[in-house]
Amino acid sequence: MLRENRIRFYRDNGYLVVSDVFPANELAALRRVTGHLVEAARGVAASDGVYDLGPDHGPDIPVVRRIKDPQDQDPVYAAAARSERLLDIVACLLGPAIRFDHGKLNFKPARGGAAVEWHQDWAFYPHTNDDLLAVGIMLEDCTSENGPLLVVPGSRKGPVHDHHHDGVFVGAIDPAAPGADRDRAVALTGKAGACSFHHVRTLHGSAENLSPRPRPLLLFSYAAVDAWPVGERVDLEAFDGRILRGAPTLEPRQDALPLRIPLPRVAAADSIFDDQAAIRGRSFGAKTPAPVAKPETKEETV
Fold first, then answer.
1. In the prediction, which pLDDT does 237 show?
2. DSSP letters spanning 49-89
3. What is the CA radius of gyration of the chain?
4. How far is the C-alpha of 45 from the C-alpha of 283, rounded, in Å?
5. How many Å apart are CA 119 and CA 160, to the nearest integer?
6. Can you give the pLDDT at residue 112?
7. Domains of the chain listed by start with CATH number
8. Is the terminal CB of the chain with fewer CB neighbours within 10 Å at N or C?
9. Strands 64-68 and 98-106
10. Which residues pair with residue 64 across a beta bridge?
11. Residues near 254 by beta carbon (within 8 Å), at least 6 away in sequence
């Protein structure tokens, strides 16, 4: 469980890092399964329902940018998404009724991991209220050199930025937009087994991995049970089947929040990498260093 001052820190700043959420044995199992899946990608020629592959991918050197829905690919990932230690922390930040929303495993290979442009998750999946967050499980150490998640403190309370370019949703903001405040960004670093938590409206991105160490980040997103997606048709049985704690409801909680619908999209866009293809490099050029973590107090560090 989290101390009250850490909960306040999250609510004020829109992010948190908690160390030692996953013990060594569970971390080893996650790494083992991840290694098997990356190795299996050698036999995959193009992105499919499991893999998002980089442009340099080949059988000799597999370049996996993302494993899609890892919780559906192996029971080890599914168990991690339902970890009671993890859900206890999520409950402190969202409330006792929790729905699993989606998962992904993003990779930044050593000296080659691509940047992800600045964005808010809220732009991709607006809901009737914003009690949603994403958890980043650090499978390896995340340092300021290997492309860690960067967040802008307090941006969860700021504007909902336009993520369109030339009339098309590209999943990224104009870095010069008023209120972006990227110069205040902090890097969410930590030892393997730590977890980062960021609010659905927190502005975030990540620079290139310039280090000799890979950076796999297992991401699971959660929502309050009474947060319903806007503009999506809901399969009620499947929707309620993702409830991990609490009871179903047909009465969404509606908060007066700004939102934009993420349409129209690039034809056949299947991930944030496809969405951002047209503006890639706008914020993070080659050799862009990551900001050094600047926690407000020692207690908020890993």
1. 98
2. SSEEE-TT--SSS--EEEEESHHHH-HHHHHHHT-HHHHHH
3. 18
4. 30
5. 10
6. 75
7. 4-300 (2.60.120.620)
8. N
9. antiparallel
10. 53
11. 128, 129
Rounded distance, CA 119 to CA 104, Å?
17
Question: Is the four-CA dihedral 103, 286, 17, 229 of positive or negative sign?
Answer: negative
Question: Residue 9: enclosing H or E segment and its boundaries?
Answer: helix 4-13
Q: What is the reported pTM? A: 0.93
Q: What are the Cα distances from residue 28, in Å, to 6, 31, 40, 68, 240?
A: 28, 5, 18, 20, 31
Torsion over CA: 281, 287, 291, 14 (sign):
positive
Q: Which two structure tokens, joined as six digits, stand for 30?
A: 């996650």
Report the length, in residues, of the chain. Answer: 302
CA distance 110 to 138: 15
CA–CA gap between residue 12 and residue 20 (Å, rounded):
23
Question: How far from the centroid of its chain's Cα atoms is residue 218's Cα?
Answer: 8
Residues paired with residue 195 on neighbouring β-strands, in sequence order: 18, 137
Residues 6+ apart with CB under 8 A from 163: 119, 120, 123, 124, 169, 170, 171, 172, 173, 260, 262
pLDDT of residue 287: 46
Residue with tokens 């503009």: 231
Pair of tokens at residue 268 = 């056949």
Asked if residue 216 has a cis previous peptide bond (ω within 30° of 0), the answer is: no
What pLDDT does 302 receive?
A: 33
